[in-house]
Specification:
single chain, 11 helices, about 290 residues, ABC transporter involved in vitamin B12 uptake, BtuC, about 5% strand
Length: about 290
């Protein structure tokens, strides 16, 4: 019975990780940025969603929309306040830009975490479930909210796939991840593409954050763990590979879920980090990465 519980719970958690990690890897694929404030943006979405839905009496759904809007605004703020100034700075050597962006987004994430701790404290919060009731899956009693979380994650990822592969703007994003210089020569404005990809990222991170808050609950102490999980997934899957991130999300999600059930919840990130180290040694480009 415990194995079935791990199977069911791990699927929902992995779906959440996949949703957040796809946005993370999409940004790297298009603009070459590893955003280490990722966990902070997800937590902001969760806390704003909880506060708006409960304290401000917006209700669960409007509160969730407020959380997604907060993540979208913070994603753009991250780009225009931290990332873009570093990338355009003439005092930073081109070959050192990436490490400065990594450091800048890391410090920015810490600042966000401290600010949210001041406003909301470090206590865990949980949004009201999107739906009530339970269902039986393979003999395991599962909250309907958990099922809905997994379904919504996959629905959003399918919509993203349709956007990228069936629209002109989406194909431009895909082309920018392969050869941005050639795209510029064809007359496309990379600034607009960066606007678009950071907007998509903010929405994905926001949705993942509010769904996580309604499923497991979050606190500001989860910032580093969420960032570490996303980073592990992206590196395991291969930097810039969306399909690789999807596969890696389920590997990490099930490893963490099994660890939480079989050993201790506090140790859940450890096996994934050990696997990350092994993969970096054996296959540095990840499962499906090209670089």
């Amino acid at each position: 019975m415990q194995a079935l519980q791990i199977l069911v719970d791990g699927f929902a958690i992995s779906s959440l990780y996949a949703l957040g990690a796809i946005g993370f890897t999409l940004i790297f694929g298009v603009s070459g940025v590893l955003n280490l404030s990722h966990g902070a943006i997800m937590v902001v979405a969760a806390l704003i969603g909880w506060y708006a839905g409960g304290t401000l009496a917006f209700g669960t759904y409007l509160g969730a929309l407020a959380g997604v809007a907060a993540a979208l605004a913070l994603a753009y703020l991250t780009y225009f306040v931290v990332v873009r100034p570093i990338q355009r700075s003439r005092s930073i050597a081109h070959e050192e830009t990436e490490i400065f962006v990594l450091t800048g987004t890391l410090l920015w994430g810490i600042m966000i975490q401290v600010g949210m701790s001041y406003l909301f404290s470090d206590n865990p919060v949980t949004m009201l479930p999107l739906v009530s009731g339970t269902s039986d899956i393979f003999g395991v009693t599962t909250p309907n909210n958990e099922i809905l979380v997994a379904v919504l994650c996959w629905l959003v990822m399918c919509l993203l796939w349709l956007f990228v592969n069936r629209t002109g703007a989406g194909k431009a994003l895909l082309a920018a991840s392969i050869n941005p210089r050639a795209l510029t020569l064809l007359g496309f404005n990379l600034s607009r593409i960066y606007w678009l990809v950071w907007g998509i990222y903010g929405v994905l991170a926001g949705i993942a954050g509010v769904l996580l808050a309604s499923f497991l609950g979050v606190s500001t102490n989860n910032v580093s763990q969420l960032t570490a999980s996303a980073f592990s997934i992206v590196v395991l899957g291969g930097l810039g590979s969306v399909s690789g991130s999807l596969i890696a999300a389920y590997v990490v999600g099930y490893l963490e879920t099994a660890t939480a059930y079989l050993i201790a919840p506090t140790l859940r990130p450890i096996p994934a980090l050990i696997l990350l180290v092994l993969v970096v040694y054996a296959r540095p480009q990840g499962l499906l990465g090209r670089r």
